[in-house]
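Figure S7 source data.
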Amino acid sequence: MHEISIVRNVFDTLQETYPDKFERISKVQMEAGLLSNIQPILIQNAFEALIVEEPGLADIELEVVQLPIIAHCEACEKDFEVVRHKFVCTCGTPSRKIVQGEELQISKVEFIGN
Amino acid sequence: MLSEPIEVTHALGKDLDTGQRNVDVLEVEWHETAKSRMRRKTKGGQEVLINRTDRGSFQDGDILYLSDKRVIMLRIKSCDCIVLRPASLQEVGTICFEIGNKHVPIFMTEQEEVCVAYDGYLYQMLLSGGFAPAIEERVLHPFQMVKAYGNMA
Ligand SMILES: [Zn+2]
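Tokens for the predicted zinc ion complex:
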């Protein structure tokens, strides 16, 4: 499954980034935008499946935070939040110029003892 | 106030008599109800460590902790959902198939609505598919999840 490989990749990346501290990771926070095409539940379920295979990861908390969609309005040169799929600025100008919402990334890593 | 985190391994139940105890609330997202591990603060500031090994899900209103003086209750936060009101059973099937392909959990309400958490792609897909998706704020309850499709990754 696609999501399993994403979660595997996350932990492979963390292992490479923190070779000495990896064992002490207590929490990993990821950000998934509402336009990333990956819902948090899929990451969460994939992680639950992964810890069955790799019980060593079971003490780590994986938190997925959803990021709202933010677009840029050319008319007022401002960013606005796309609420309920309305890609229209408060000034009335429609915009599909996305500045946030497409990302899927590691946003925070916490370790035991610091 | 206790300073040590309270460890919770399972829910104590839903409709317990909590008497005069102080009710503190632990809020979680709908997609966090089946997490086996999670450290969170209640609204009252108490740290709670969820540590469950039974692969189950918490339900909205579950009592997590009960002492002489207080109760900690789990609440599922509402979120923007795509709500569909299919006209026929056949349409329910088509919708569930389309959404199920994306492996996203589907929820069926008592009003026979099909609910799924909002995301931009899914909404666009349903819109282009000729369905009439509405976006409404809802609580997605684990017990309303449709189990027939590949929900688990
Ligand atoms: Zn504008």
